[in-house]
Amino acid sequence: MRRARACYGRSSMNSDLGSSAALAEELQASRTRIVEAADEARRRIERDLHDGAQQRLVTASMLLKVAMRGAADDSRLREDLERVAAELDAGLGELRELARGIHPAVLTAKGLSAAIDALAARSSVPVRVVGSLPARPAAAVELALYFTVAEALTNVAKYAAATEVVVTIEGDDQQAQVEVRDDGRGGADPTAGSGLRGLVDRLGALRGHLHVESPEGGGTVLRAVVPRDPHDPRADTNCGCCAVGQCRCAA
């Protein structure tokens, strides 16, 4: 009787472990699908803004400039039209920035390296971009890495007092990685604000993680590692930092 009971216990435990593993895998897959659905919604909004409201504003700006040429003899009317044109151009610029923040068109069209080059060109701190990916990963992975660099550069400009940033892009047939390294004041903490915390959640939903090394006065190194295919349950994003307790993926 005891033997039968022991055998049943092991079978039940194995069954429970199997069920728990399957449940954990389904939960992970669900998180990945949610991120991908949100990213597709972002792409749709960006397309709608570009093809709809943005094109209408461009057309309105062109018509206004024609009207301004026709009002050359009326200085007061021309001044009024110039003010309207300035406001329209400012609104168009803000709309373009909004569309770029929702989902950058250059990322879809040209890939991660080109999109990060565009971020670097707009940065108020000098940025050097090195490396590339051997091939384009899943769209959600590209977007997660892009947002990682965008958030890091924003934080550098706001808080780091850095003089230089180096962005490194690298990967292989299993995973993709970006590293953002600055020479600023350090002290970055993923738990202190919503930006890095959001990156931790986004990367985790894609089976990736975020590594942050930021000693006070020693600059900041932020590294995101993500599987090229987040739907592969065998995906491994080991970057070597977890074994020595440096990984902040669960921060």
UniProtKB/TrEMBL annotation:
It is an enzyme of class 2 (transferase). This is histidine kinase. Keywords: ATP-binding, Kinase, Nucleotide-binding, Phosphoprotein, Transferase, Two-component regulatory system. Its EC number is 2.7.13.3. InterPro entries: HATPase_C_sf, HATPase_dom, Sensor_HK_TwoCompSys, Sig_transdc_His_kin_sub3_dim/P. It catalyses: ATP + protein L-histidine = ADP + protein N-phospho-L-histidine. GO terms for molecular function: kinase activity. Residues 140-230 form the Histidine kinase/HSP90-like ATPase domain. The lineage of its organism: Bacteria, Bacillati, Actinomycetota, Thermoleophilia, Solirubrobacterales. The keyword Membrane does not apply.
